[in-house]
Structures
1.
Amino acid sequence: MPRGQKTCAKCGTVTGPRAFVCKNCNTHFAFKAKSKEQRTTKLIRNFDWRELEQGDAIKVTGGPYFFHNGEPVSMGYRGKFVVEKLDEKGICAWGIGKNTGFAHIYMGRDMQDAVTGVWKVKHKIMKIKKKEPKKVLTT
């Protein structure tokens, strides 16, 4: 079979790699199952970080960086954290999983530190929320 194609198990028709259904016999293709985390959580992207409360789970990327030989070097945090408290310049949080330890996630205004040369830039955060279980309608 040529690279980038797949074959229907029922009728043998060759289709593209992103096809969900066989174009010949309408058989659904099997896909890799989602992890338990993907099935049970959702990410909330647009919210005010000042509304976070103790115990909220967040996913963090971006943040401060430093230029070394013209290349940006990330100085920020990445991964999942649990909020401990908020202060005027950011979020104090504990890491989850491989990001263990305490972190101050900078959320202040963008600026360059005169002493260290580090560009202080807001982290990008997403709130992790458990999905509501699907309600089963009974009649």
2.
Amino acid sequence: MNPLHEDDLPEMLPKLKSETSSSFLVTSHSPEIMEVSTPSLHRIYNFIGKLIAWFFSRSHIEKILILVILAFTGFAMLQAALKLIASVISLLLLATLVYLAYKFVVPNNIEQEY
């Protein structure tokens, strides 16, 4: 390694700037990606804002009714998801039992026939 002298620093500064600007060419694509995703985020935030404004413009009874409907819908979706998970677990247990029955019952019957 070469020792650095204070006299070399002013000469090295432009060289380092040119190296760093050329080595980070990938960052020039980052703003384009952000520009593409930003309008969709603005639309989502705008929709949520309109939805909240619509909700708060309702009367108290309508708000309660909306919340009850949302709660029932949420519980129904949760129940459906839990039933799906229970079905998958049941199928896995059934497959395991069938495999174990095949593993321990079928080889014993084959050995007994000979």
3.
Amino acid sequence: MQEKPREDFYSVEKAAKLLGRTPERIRQMLHAGELEGEHEGDERHASWKVYKASVDARRDRSRDRSRG
């Protein structure tokens, strides 16, 4: 699999700020498949990096719901 450029990801902390959630909730969402991301290393407990497109889509959906 080809590695994505660093700018295609948010840290868990940045994703949490953008979505108004805690970092722990972002990790739960990643584990549940509600957000897309990947571990930074090969180890199971490595830090997550969250796909920007996933965060942006989730934020857009939340905005649409609050408007309508």
4.
Amino acid sequence: MRMRTFVIRRLLLLIPVLIGVTLIVFALTRVGNPAAAYITEKMSETQIEMVYEKYHFNEPTYVQYFYWLNGLVNLDWGISKTDGSKPVIESMATYFPATFELTMVSIAIAVFVGISLGTVSAVRRDKPIDHATRIIALSGVSLPIFVLALILQFIFYSQLHWLPLEGRYDVSLYLESGGFTKFTGFYVIDTILSGKFTMFGDVLFHMILPAVTLAFGTIAIITRIMRSSMLEVLNLDYIRTAKAKGLPNKAVINKHARKNALIPTTTVVGLSFGGLLGGAVLTETIFSWPGLGRWSTRAVLANDANSILGFTLLTAFVYVIANLVVDVLYAYLDPRVRLG
């Protein structure tokens, strides 16, 4: 019952946060002339006036905000000049599956590798594997994502010829032949639903380089937090008591220490998810990945304000939702949180 109350309270707290996000993004839309996104050099004075009237740019600012907010709720986020004058929401729906799929695979890699390395590093403190893990973590924090991408491309594509260089797996031939159906737009899911397991392997194969590149920095952060948390937990009295009772070291680590050490790590994982979505901009550009990151880069180069702000708003919403999920997981792992 207390868990349900905790979740309801967190959901209610989302309302002012989301309003604050919309206010900030709206303020950004009013830097300069907001009508510039809709006006071209070929428009007459009458057409320009129609634009001002249609989008209420001649109204007071607070009135513009309510019209703009109404447009957000009704999924009217403006027109994307970058994507052939399609609605921004339609363009985002087209590119979102590729980015979300890449982000999910990256966060899965980061969580598995980061927690594993952090645990091993803490258990084998000051051993060679601990030093190696700390070097990896330091490299992940220090190395820019575009440098890592170029290094991985050079090693695994140019020299070893093990992995493809760039691009999402092309399913167009399968679509034309009728052997594959796009149920969701997420190729990992659609290949399974279509029964194309060989194709499923090819999809994952094309994701290895961009996913590892995107995950590397997060692996470093999770590893460092997990190591620090594990070292703290391993020195607590109940761990010493468990060892004194003769419990196997593996059981002490897996059943007692790691669960409590995951509590601070959970926060980092949730916040890193939003960071991965933002970090996909560089990764998708370098690997020619057809997602939101690459689309937003083209929008910046084309000075497409609507597309840029749409991406900004979506990223902000993802951060807010990620924080909500983290709070719920935190409360699940540590009952003291929901009692506070």
